[in-house]
């Protein structure tokens, strides 16, 4: 998952600001979209996905998070919606792996702190790191 490694600094920034200030700046999401578009346009022979496919995945993730945002206010923030949608552009279908691992990281955070406000930006960073580690473990065996 070299595309995940490329976005870790941006996710670290988003995770830090989300944990510390409970805000994910738009520039993090915009930067992720630029990275994802550049990967498809310039390195598509490595990733084998079209920009259309990644945009469809991004819209699907956006709708999922936006529904949660609108149906249960306070369940997720607008920055979380934009962050995960932009991850869809960067990662394509692999965003589902990061999303599942981020949810697990969020549950662990909640279990340890009992804080009802889980910083999903931090959980996304943890989920991306876990995705890289798990992929390397699977390749090793």
Descriptive report:
By secondary structure, this protein is mostly helical. The protein has one domain. Helix content is 83%, strand content 0%. It contains six helices and no strands. Helix 1 runs antiparallel to helix 6 and helix 2 runs parallel beside helix 4. The chain is globular and about 45 Å long. The model has no long low-confidence stretch (mean pLDDT 91).
Task: Please provide a brief summary of the model.
The chain has 141 residues and is mainly alpha-helical. The protein contains six helices and no strands. α1 packs antiparallel against α6 (120-140).
Helical proportion, percent range: over 70%
The low-confidence runs, each spanning 5 or more residues with pLDDT under 50, are: none
Shape: globular
What is the radius of gyration computed over CA atoms, rounded to a whole number of angstroms? Answer: 14 Å
Tally of individual domains: 1
């Amino acid at each position: 998952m070299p595309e995940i490694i490329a976005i870790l600094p941006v996710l670290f920034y988003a995770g830090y600001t989300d944990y510390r200030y409970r805000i994910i700046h738009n520039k993090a999401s915009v930067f992720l979209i630029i990275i994802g578009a550049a990967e498809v346009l310039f390195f598509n022979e490595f990733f084998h996905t079209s920009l259309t496919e990644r945009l469809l995945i991004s819209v699907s993730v956006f709708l999922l998070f936006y529904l949660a945002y609108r149906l249960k206010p306070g369940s997720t923030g607008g920055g979380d919606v934009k962050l995960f949608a932009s991850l869809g552009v960067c990662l394509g279908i692999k965003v589902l792996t990061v999303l599942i691992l981020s949810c697990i990281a969020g549950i662990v955070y909640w279990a340890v702190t009992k804080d009802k406000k889980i910083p999903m930006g931090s959980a996304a960073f943890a989920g991306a790191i876990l995705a890289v580690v798990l992929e390397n473990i699977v390749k090793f065996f």
